[in-house]
Amino acid sequence: MAGLAVAALLSGCAGSGATGPGAADPGVAGPGEAAPSSSAASASPAGAFPLAVSSCGVDATLEEPPERIVTIKSSATEMVLALGAGDRLVGTAFADGDVPAELAPAAADVPVLAEKNPAQEAVLELEPDLVYAGWESNLSADGAGERQTYQDLGVATYVSPSACKGAEHRPERLTFDLVLEEITEVGRMLGEDEAAAELVAAQRAELDAVVPSGAGLTALWYSSGEDVPYVGAGIGAPQMIMDAVGLENVAAGVQDTWTSLGWEAVAEANPDVVVLVDAAWNTAEHKKEALERNPVTATLPAVQEERYLVVPFPATEAGMRNVPAVTDLAAQLAELEVAR
């Protein structure tokens, strides 16, 4: 197990109980001007260790690149795979869906600890030197155990900075700069600086190549729920992605990552298009059927004319899949505009 020097005590920003798929767990910030990052790497040059890192107010020092990594949530697992460190994954948990096809070979033999949050005992049995989580609540008493406990046992923990829930650590809004900063920082932690730089450069180029729609279309980001829909609000990954595509979010005024929005409010907003989140537990097709049988939404032009865009659930949380989601949704939107 890699040595760990604790740089600071837990600052009290551990999350509350674990939430289910699609829940508004991370208090992420959304698009627009850059917000201060809640994570900070040491001033050491790239590739230098020891390396001090901080996420959500919890500081630690990695004495060397971790060799035994446990990830919780798809965003964390896919980040490690994308940076070429999949052979150091000794366990994963809480997958939100299949990994991208290009990462599937590297993920094929990685052990799966649990469908949701693993027990802390199961994690510790693997003797990890890093536990990397996508949600702050993944590392809590109701999740895979408190971060302080891991610290006391010499195990480093890291939470996606966009997922910090404490007001003093949470970015005001999610931006692509913050997403790419996480790629850079995780690359430094893993000793994969070059791979991280290449991924960041590729994603910046891909994002720059996207031409947002200028049609002024409004959109509803429909994640889950039938009695009351659960939708993308104004400061998280859905807002960031819609901005990049050129869609006006009908729930942009809600200062949260996700929110409940009554069907009557949806009907009043009368969105031009509906973005459907496709998850194994709540498919895009199921959401189409829900919209078509709901008397409040069945008469909406977007529903009657099937003006739908589809995005996979793992791409809806801050991570390396956000930029590809922009490219894909922009292409879908262009086809939809031609069809109209």
Q: What's the helix count?
A: 11
**Secondary structural class:** alpha/beta
Biggest sheet features? 6 strands, mixed
Query: How widely separated are the two ends?
Result: 58 Å
Helix content: 25-40%
Provide the gyration radius in Å.
Answer: 20 Å
Number of beta-strand segments? 14
H/E order of the elements? EEEEHEHEHEHEHHEEHEEHEHHEH
* Oligomer type: single chain
Round the mean pLDDT to the nearest integer and report it. 88
Are there runs of 5+ residues with pLDDT below 50, and where? 1-38
Range of strand content: 15-25%
Task: Characterize the overall form.
Answer: globular
Outline the structure in words.
It is a single chain. α5 runs antiparallel to α6 and α6 packs parallel to α11. With 340 residues, the chain is an alpha/beta fold. The longest helix has 18 residues. The strands form three sheets. Strands 9, 10, 11, 12, 13 and 14 form a six-stranded mixed sheet that branches. Helix content is 31%, strand content 17%.
SSE topology sketch:
Elements: E1 4-5, E2 51-55, E3 58-62, E4 69-72, H1 74-82, E5 89-93, H2 104-107, E6 112-114, H3 120-125, E7 130-133, H4 147-152, E8 156-159, H5 176-190, H6 193-209, E9 218-224, E10 230-232, H7 237-245, E11 248-249, E12 258-260, H8 263-269, E13 273-278, H9 284-293, H10 301-304, E14 308-312, H11 322-339
Parallel strand pairs: 4-5, 4-7, 5-6, 7-8, 9-11, 9-13, 13-14
Antiparallel strand pairs: 1-3, 2-3, 9-10, 10-12
